[in-house]
Write a structure and sequence with these properties.
globular, binds S-adenosylmethionine, 8 helices, about 40% helix, 7-stranded mixed beta sheet, about 200 residues, alpha/beta, 7 strands, single chain
């Protein structure tokens, strides 16, 4: 992140906007279940709100300095914080009931890393779990705001195919000025080739 992003993401204004407007729109009343994974938590603008919505939150962040700040800000048993990479999540399969990534995907350096991250989110979600994300448009204002930072925009037109390739279903993409929200579900029951073969053998 550049200085402008560090400044803005650390403000109480961004935290208030996230709590009052952004998260209610992105989550749109969905139940998050018992254990939420927050990816790219940054200064924790969303973390406090997620802690109100779920009994357990695990917040992952790439920048070790931000993780230390997050630990100091929220000292509670319901929150686990750790340093890690969204493209190589340090969790076992099917660990979380839901996952949230606000303004994170465009910070991954390549499309390949983004696709690996989507695959990783799918892997660590339990069947029936939902991934929620908010991303910004590839317009001049966002390109200028990311000067000297990473900006690998995820076009909304590509989001559906990329989430499908990662294994997700029930994908929705909705727009607002400046950005868009995504929700995508890991199917509740997955029909592997072995399961299909077993089912046809008994039919
Ligand atoms: C624009 S900030 C958003 C932070 C927070 N979600 C918010 O809404 O305030 C993007 C965050 O993603 C983090 N990030 C970048 N690459 C990452 C990766 N590979 N894995 C996890 N987090 C990453 C950055 O360090 C940064 O804190």
């Amino acid at each position: 992140m550049n200085h402008l992003e560090h400044f803005f993401c650390s403000t109480s204004l961004w935290q208030r906007l996230t709590h009052r407007f952004l998260l209610p729109w992105v989550l749109s009343g969905a139940r998050l279940g018992d254990h939420v994974l927050e990816i790219g938590a940054g200064y924790g603008a969303a973390t406090g709100h997620l802690l109100k919505l779920a009994p357990r939150v695990t917040s992952l962040e790439y920048d070790a300095r931000l993780i230390r700040r997050l630990q100091a800000k929220h000292q509670c048993a319901a929150l686990t914080t750790l340093c890690g990479d969204a493209a190589a999540l340090p969790f076992s399969d099917q660990s979380f009931s839901s996952a949230v990534a606000i303004l994170v995907l465009h910070h991954l350096k390549t499309k390949g890393q983004q696709d690996r991250a989507l695959g990783e989110v799918h892997r660590v979600l339990r069947p029936g779990g939902t991934f929620f994300a908010f991303e910004i448009n590839n317009d001049w204002i966002h390109r200028v705001a990311h000067y000297g930072s990473t900006f690998t925009p995820v076009t909304p037109a590509s989001a559906f195919a990329r989430l499908t390739n990662a294994g997700f279903s029930k994908i929705s993409v909705d727009f607002r000025s400046g950005g868009y929200r995504v929700s995508a579900r890991r199917a509740a029951a997955e029909f592997t080739n072995e399961k299909l073969a077993a089912a046809s053998a008994t039919a």
